[in-house]
Amino acid sequence: MIPLDDTTASNGRPLHAPRPALLRREHYLLALTWAFTFFSSVRVLSYLPTLWLIVEQQNSSQHSLLTWLAWLGANLTMAGWLHEHNGRRFNRAVWVNLANATMCTLTAAVIVFYRFAPGATP
Question: pLDDT-based confidence at 10, cuts 50/70/90?
């Protein structure tokens, strides 16, 4: 007699085909974690050209302070939400959102500096 489990029918046939190794959840989660880490790192670095341009031109009139403050708020609240839903522990996603919030803060500060500095271009 064939032992039965949740993957075999009463006649011994499999209820579903076994998944290929590449599609296992562990591999998917590992790939997703590395993709998150890569793209989040690229995202943090992607703020630098905007910061550089504003400083180089000494003019922030083409950049929306409201947008940067909204992104700052979104990143901070997402970090807080993730922290709370992770048992008040810091994980990679919390740190990435805090890094993004830091870059938004720097960008907003540079915008404010060049927008409201004495002699700034309106």
Answer: confident
